[in-house]
Design goal:
CATH topology of the largest domain: Immunoglobulin-like
GO cellular component, one term: apoplast
Strand content: 35-45%
CATH class of the largest domain: Mainly Beta
Radius of gyration: 23 Å
Cofactor: Cu cation
Number of helices: 5
Pfam families: Cu-oxidase (PF00394), Cu-oxidase_2 (PF07731), Cu-oxidase_3 (PF07732)
CATH superfamily of the largest domain: Cupredoxins -  blue copper proteins
Family: Belongs to the multicopper oxidase family.
Largest sheet: 6 strands, mixed
Distance between the termini: 49 Å
Strand order of the largest sheet: 10-9-12-17-14-15
CATH architecture of the largest domain: Sandwich
Number of strands: 32
Structural class: mainly beta
Number of domains: 3
Protein name: Laccase
Helix content: under 10%
Length: 562
């Protein structure tokens, strides 16, 4: 369990790169990056396999920017798969062309071709991330985005001595795309992952992992800012460091009211920044990540570990493990999420919409389609308001911008076709789920309230939903069926947490509000890749406004062809 020298050098590079970055001049700059998508061999868990990498790195390179900067990332695809990259959490105002989800805002970058994602970082600072947004390629194609505040604008919390990225992921022994293809052909979920990872490394609880262990050296008395990202495909994760409390100060690149916790819960797509003080007896302490699942569904329940090591402590000292919550600890999950609140200060106000122009109620459900060639004669599907989304053959944003007919309809329903006891006894009957590329049209600058309601169609389950192009306020959440008369009275309209990805609790509901001030076509989907593939997704068409800067920007000349 020795510290891996290769990783220590990468950690040093991160810190040196950050120091060099923050010395840049105050004026807005243009940051240029080149991403080369390649297939390279990687060894984990005593087994080597080819994976898709960016610039030969796994995880991929970190994008550094400062609030107000322009970023240009030229992506050249040398891999055998079509590719697109999503800059998760960046709002891309009027500029959906740079958002990245394949067949939503662009057609993918074909093998041998390039596309330059060109976007401004406006009104955002903190930790976000980027990942492939086609097939299951984000299993290995992902990395961090670090946005520093404007020059002269301090953090609204004590300045840390150092910062460190902690990117959580999943690992499969075999080729992920082949596993998914096999599962689809059988009509069953694909095999679950074989390990979880911290910065691409599973840690010493797995075989052949002495060299594949992330280690972070710390000095007594110093404070560290951990930028934690859940890049896993299908698992919500608990994360903790043995013997050390963490202070949560930011989620999804939005500052929060600080609170102290022994563990965090982070869903796929979410980011969390925490402060941690090296204030314990000098030693070696495990950091650990393990799934949260409070529904009767199998998951990869293995624990990924890294080492939080005090300077001068020999590697022969055995680390201690943290006490993570039980894997089905619903009470911890609900309590933790309830503590998340916007900072709501003069510099960082929570502009919660108090008046609502459009109320939406979407049910989340599973079903089965007939599939004579599948193992059980059926294939699992997922739906919102009983509609399982069908991906188009060209980008929806292109179809909208150029008025191409026949690609999508704008009649996605504001509520389910048939009310029922959503979280009552399990329902195995298929409610006649429809298939279609149906979008919801939203007037520019209107205020929207969306209630996402889990259902017991086949089973209840937690779902982390991500809305592209927007942040939103999580004004309410609860267990059971949403009550439109009683529950809104309990909303937090003062300092609700603001984020871009939110969990809908198992057998419960979540209410979000946002102002539709970003014209374009914006994807909304469950960030469990398994459920997205089954159709648990839709998109909003936000209409242009009447002002000069309230319409979609013209597309770039090098937009990938369909």
């Amino acid at each position: 369990m020795a510290i891996n020298g290769d990783f220590v050098s990468k950690t040093t590079l991160f810190l040196v790169g950050l120091i060099a970055f923050i010395s840049f001049p105050a004026e807005a700059a243009v940051r240029k990056y080149q991403f080369d998508i390649q297939v390279k061999n990687v060894s984990r868990l005593c087994h080597a396999k080819p994976i898709v990498k960016v610039n030969g790195r796994f995880p991929g390179p970190t994008i550094y920017a400062r609030e107000g900067d322009r970023v240009i990332v030229n992506v050249t695809n040398h891999a055998k798969y079509n590719m697109s990259i999503h800059w998760h959490g960046l709002k891309q105002y009027r500029n959906g062309w740079a958002d990245g989800p394949a067949y939503i805002t662009q057609c993918p970058i074909k093998t041998g071709n390039s596309y330059a994602y060109d976007f401004n970082v406006t009104g955002q600072r903190g930790t976000l991330w980027w990942h492939a947004h086609i097939l299951w390629l984000r299993a290995t194609v992902y990395g961090a985005i670090v946005i520093m505040p404007k020059q002269g604008m301090p953090y609204p919390f004590p300045k840390p001595n150092m910062e460190q990225l902690v990117v959580l992921g999943e690992w499969w022994h075999k080729d992920v795309e082949e596993i998914v293809k096999q599962g689809n052909n059988m009509g069953l979920p694909p095999n679950m992952s074989d390990a979880h990872t911290i910065n691409g490394k599973p840690g010493p609880l797995f075989p052949c992992s002495e060299k594949h262990t992330f280690a972070m050296e710390v000095e007594s008395g110093k404070t560290y800012l951990l930028r934690i990202i859940n890049a896993a495909l299908n698992d919500e994760l608990f994360f903790a460091i043995a013997g050390h409390n963490m202070t949560v100060v930011e989620v999804d690149a939005v500052y929060t009211k600080p609170f102290v916790t022994q563990a965090i819960l982070i869903a796929p797509g979410q980011t969390t920044n925490v402060l941690i003080q090296a204030n314990q007896s000098p030693g070696r302490y495990f950091m650990a990540a393990r799934p949260f699942m409070d529904a009767p569904i199998p998951v990869d329940n293995k624990t990924a570990t890294g080492i939080f090591q005090y300077k001068g402590i020999p590697n022969t000292v055995l680390p201690t493990l943290p006490q993570l919550p039980a894997s089905n600890d619903t009470d911890f999950a609900l309590s933790y999420n309830k503590k998340l609140k916007s900072l709501n200060s003069a510099n960082f106000p929570a502009n919660v919409p108090l008046k609502v122009d459009r109320k939406l109620f979407y049910t989340v459900g599973f079903g089965k389609d007939s599939c004579p060639t599948c193992v059980n004669g059926t294939r699992i599907l997922a739906s919102l308001n009983n509609i399982s989304f069908v991906m188009p053959k060209i980008g929806l944003l292109q179809a909208h911008y150029f008025n191409i007919s026949g690609v999508f309809r704008t009649d996605f329903p504001d509520k389910p076709p048939k009310p029922f006891n959503y979280t009552g006894a399990p329902l195995t009957a298929n409610l006649g789920t429809a298939h279609g590329t149906r979008l919801s049209k939203i007037a520019f600058n209107s205020t929207v309230e969306l209630v996402l309601q889990d259902t017991n169609l086949l089973t209840v389950e937690s779902h982390p939903f991500h809305l592209h192009g927007y942040n939103f306020f999580v004004v309410g959440t609860g267990i059971g069926n949403f009550d439109p008369v009683k529950d809104p009275a309990k909303y937090n309209l003062v300092d609700p947490v603001e984020r871009n990805t939110v969990g809908v609790p198992t057998g419960g509901w979540t209410a979000i509000r946002f102002r539709a001030d970003n014209p374009g076509v914006w994807f909304m989907h469950c960030h469990l890749e398994l459920h997205t593939g089954w159709g648990l997704k839709m998109a909003f068409v936000v209409e242009d406004g009447k002002g000069a800067d309230q319409s979609i920007l013209p597309p770039p000349k090098d937009l990938p062809p369909c």
